[in-house]
Automatic annotation (TrEMBL):
Record Gene3D superfamilies: 6.10.250.2250, Cytochrome c-like domain
Keyword Nuclease among record annotations: no
Pfam name, any one: FixO
Ranges of residues in domain Cytochrome c: 52-228
Superkingdom of origin organism: Bacteria
SUPFAM superfamilies, per the entry: Cytochrome c (SSF46626)
Entry-linked PROSITE patterns: CYTC
Entry-linked InterPro entries: Cyt_c-like_dom, Cyt_c-like_dom_sf, Cyt_c_oxidase_monohaem-su/FixO
Gene name linked to the record: ccoO
The keyword Metal-binding appears for this protein: yes
Entry protein name: Cytochrome-c oxidase, cbb3-type subunit II
Length: 243
């Protein structure tokens, strides 16, 4: 075996051919599942898209590297289901660009985090994790309460997501900045329009506890509270399809 490898390395053309063959096998294994993606992603009636404010929070989540320590995918293993809840379905992340499944858990999985804790808990935890979990190694994100969220360009973000298949309507894109403000200000005249456009299950409240200016804390907590709540498919009985 070692002699074959040694001889192969000395034959430039043979070595190149071997590289191409091995790379082709790996590429095929990665690409082939995409041809059956329509059968992989479940079809559900109650799947909603994320609101502009939740998208702003998702952008902050990515910016701060939260995906490096938290996963957003519950595997079918018994201990994971017992700890985190129903295993993740493909439909739940069909509108994620990029996907944030993660590959490491310094902290817990967040796939079912939505509405598990109160907004006040999430805000306090992000502001200084050790106030609530003394042994936490998570950094404090105190500036989220201070910095205002950038919401003026959210229409462009929604338009970009629509080009890759997220079904945002022209109305959603045109009203993105207004909806982002209204979702964090439930007493504003425009707040009712958020649930009209995104569904009755949408959280509309002052996520950081302070109505008025939309902070980065508002956006990130809104995003965290949406995780696992975009559809109830995972909580429904899974019935195998019979062809």
């Amino acid at each position: 075996m070692f002699k074959f490898h040694y001889n192969l390395e000395r034959n430039a053309i043979g070595f190149v051919v071997a590289i191409v063959v091995v790379a082709s096998i790996g590429g095929f294994i990665e690409i082939a599942p995409l041809f059956t993606i329509n059968q992989t992603v479940e079809k559900v009636a109650d799947m909603r898209v994320q609101t502009p404010l939740e998208i702003a929070g998702r952008n902050i989540y990515i910016r701060e590297g939260c995906y490096a320590c938290h996963s957003q995918m519950i595997r079918t293993l018994r201990d994971e289901v017992d700890r985190y809840g129903p295993y993740s379905l493909a439909v739940e992340s069909q509108y994620d660009h990029p996907m944030l499944w993660g590959s490491k858990r310094t902290g817990p999985d967040l796939a079912r985090l939505g509405n598990k804790y109160s907004d006040a808990w999430q805000t306090a935890h992000l502001n200084n994790p050790r106030d609530l979990v003394p042994e936490s190694v998570m950094p404090a994100y105190r500036w989220l309460l201070r910095d205002k969220a950038k919401i003026d360009d959210l229409g462009e973000h929604l338009a970009a997501l629509r080009t890759v298949g997220v079904p945002y309507t022209d109305e959603m894109i045109a009203n993105a900045a207004i909806d982002a403000y209204a979702q964090a200000n439930p007493d504003s005249p425009e707040a009712a329009n958020v649930t009209v456009r995104y569904g009755e299950a949408t959280n509309v409240r002052a996520f950081d506890g302070e109505p008025g200016a939309v902070t980065e804390m508002d956006a990130l907590v809104a995003y965290l509270q949406s995780l696992g709540t975009l559809t109830d498919a995972a909580f429904q009985p899974q019935v195998a399809e019979v062809e």
